[in-house]
Amino acid sequence: MKAILLTGFEPFGGEKINPSLEIAKALDGKETETYKINSRELPCVFGEAIDQLRLAIQEVKPDLVVCVGQAGGRPDLSIERVAINVDDARIPDNKGNQPIDKPIIQEGPVAYWSSLPIKAIVKHLRDAGLPASVSQTAGTYVCNHVFYGLMHEIRQSSIRGGFIHIPFLPEQIQTRPHMASLSLDDMIRGIETAIQVSVDYEQDLLLEGGQTH
Amino acid sequence: MKAILLTGFEPFGGEKINPSLEIAKALDGKETETYKINSRELPCVFGEAIDQLRLAIQEVKPDLVVCVGQAGGRPDLSIERVAINVDDARIPDNKGNQPIDKPIIQEGPVAYWSSLPIKAIVKHLRDAGLPASVSQTAGTYVCNHVFYGLMHEIRQSSIRGGFIHIPFLPEQIQTRPHMASLSLDDMIRGIETAIQVSVDYEQDLLLEGGQTH
Amino acid sequence: MKAILLTGFEPFGGEKINPSLEIAKALDGKETETYKINSRELPCVFGEAIDQLRLAIQEVKPDLVVCVGQAGGRPDLSIERVAINVDDARIPDNKGNQPIDKPIIQEGPVAYWSSLPIKAIVKHLRDAGLPASVSQTAGTYVCNHVFYGLMHEIRQSSIRGGFIHIPFLPEQIQTRPHMASLSLDDMIRGIETAIQVSVDYEQDLLLEGGQTH
Amino acid sequence: MKAILLTGFEPFGGEKINPSLEIAKALDGKETETYKINSRELPCVFGEAIDQLRLAIQEVKPDLVVCVGQAGGRPDLSIERVAINVDDARIPDNKGNQPIDKPIIQEGPVAYWSSLPIKAIVKHLRDAGLPASVSQTAGTYVCNHVFYGLMHEIRQSSIRGGFIHIPFLPEQIQTRPHMASLSLDDMIRGIETAIQVSVDYEQDLLLEGGQTH
Description:
Chain A is α/β, with parallel strands linked by helices. Chain A has 5 helices and 8 strands; from the N terminus they run βαβαββββαβαβα. Chain A has a single domain (about 1-210), classed as Aminopeptidase. In chain A, helix 1 (about 20-25) links the parallel strand 1 and strand 2 (about 35-40). Chains in contact: A-B, A-C, A-D, B-C, B-D, C-D. The interface of A and D includes residues 87, 91 and 136 of A. Chains A, B, C, D: Its EC number is 3.4.19.3.
């Protein structure tokens, strides 16, 4: 039985809802034969978000950590490949911080790879009829911040972890014509699938998932 | 009991599947208290597509006609507002025709409005958690061709009709990273909703659905 | 010597500048062997914009009218094909009007074609190294409103006219990462080219310029 | 007098031209009071591209290396922030290689930062009326491959270097409606500006250039 830590963020950027939090709530406590999910809410605040993630890791003692964040405008479940060691905020966070070109961990490496089986996840999501891609950038805001903080925290442990970006919910695009969205049901199904695949695959599959630029 | 004619297209542009046809098949014969659906497949061929639509209208004697077509790359259910009297083909149709700037109906008006309650449909789709927008252009290919042909055919009748563009299916974007798609279940649910709303609303709602450009 | 009426709009939607107005100012009074340009500024206000366009037509007595408007986010010079008889405002105009699904001209036809040689313009713009396409929709805001009003006004005259949408200027995208723009010099060169081509071509070229959806 | 090595790529992906090569040719031999440019063509081939870059560095003995590559579809000059240690090819390179998830340098770190003053470059490009942004990913194809290879090669030297992605030329989008492009003149002006700024700024400016996702 694997312990899973699943995190979602509070709303930010003027939104009233954050689909990542709705997914985390919906899956909190879910138990299968092979894993059990513990969900936590993270603040959309530089620094505090990593602090709370660290606490949650201490409490839950997870085998696997999946952090989820909203990427409004993206059309699919984006399985992030790499976290980079920089905060560069285009908009202030929920406490008004707007760091520019600050390292997340002073002495940390430039980047960390996700240790989730990202190609296997994309394959299984697509087989399940869900839009999914590998993403080569998680941005430079609080999502990448948490992703990098996570990978740094678990770098010498047996814990595996990674980050998944998700689209807006249909209710968030009511006044935005022709913007992409995904239903909450599909998102929940997608994150469940990603967790199951992460439990099942110790090693990733060798499948193409790159971009020419 | 309203008779509904629902049409989908055969695959085109190198695709092996056309989601509009899958929807039409899935809903063929569906009967509720207020309507019954008859589905037809249309060829992706200029001229022939309208001929077969005309035949289908004679056979089915519909109260309402909903034509559906694939708009690969669009992220939502696009309820088309207007059909224009021109064929201008960027790629050949399935019989190799590639008309440029030819009127669809020689003496026809420049354009016809959809007579579906397009704003009410968008509202109900969004309320049902589906991504949807009013679209101001159905293009200049076989979809617009059929849409214009339909509106011309029923212009002096009591039949109402219109056109809905749909995204790719997830299986169509396997090798296209970060392209939008929608599951077949959601598409079917969306077209059912659009038909139900069209039966329910004789008059459209006064809701914003425009674009600045 | 042809008299050309060229119009641009005042800024709207929170912008401090409108590239269409900068182009109109830059080309006002320009004279070649075959034409002379008279420029006018139009308000971004439903109704008033058409009123002022009508006055300008009476004053300038043009052979050719080219109206230009900003389409922030579009990456190229978009030569509009068709104007539709509806106002449907996603945002209020500069006087707070926000009409929804109102006809522009009560008894007007559904749509008018541009009478500019749109394919020839696109060809010459591309040959001049400028990004350009035919556009199948001018939206449903003040740009389409003026375009429709123009084509209605000149419908029984020998005056030819049409509408061109242009991207943001580089200075308008400073805080919008990875949004398209075009330099003012290129825009001016593009509109001059479009005017010259419109003077030179009484008949349009038969070139593909459509969209599949 | 600084020695500048400027590289462009041969065409790939079915294109007949590569704007990065046209820029490199146009600026080859250019000399100002502060720098002189030596240009080189790189093959669009994994492995060989880095080999030739290494040779060019030995020959030119540059103070500064700017590698340029085509990013068809992007609307602006993208100053790349970070190179990652992976090849993941969506399409084969010009010799048919299609590596998947292979490290570029077996024992290399996950990523290297650009050592160009990327924020200062973006600022000066925008001040010069050119569309520009910081980019958080150079992809996983030959461009990122060369970028990573460059930064690894110069990691312990005083040479500074980085990578810039550029849009299509207008001539490359003739059959692609509404795709972004930039004129060759603007591109050349942009790369010259980037080089001048790189020579002028030892330290980067502290300006926002991030993305939320």
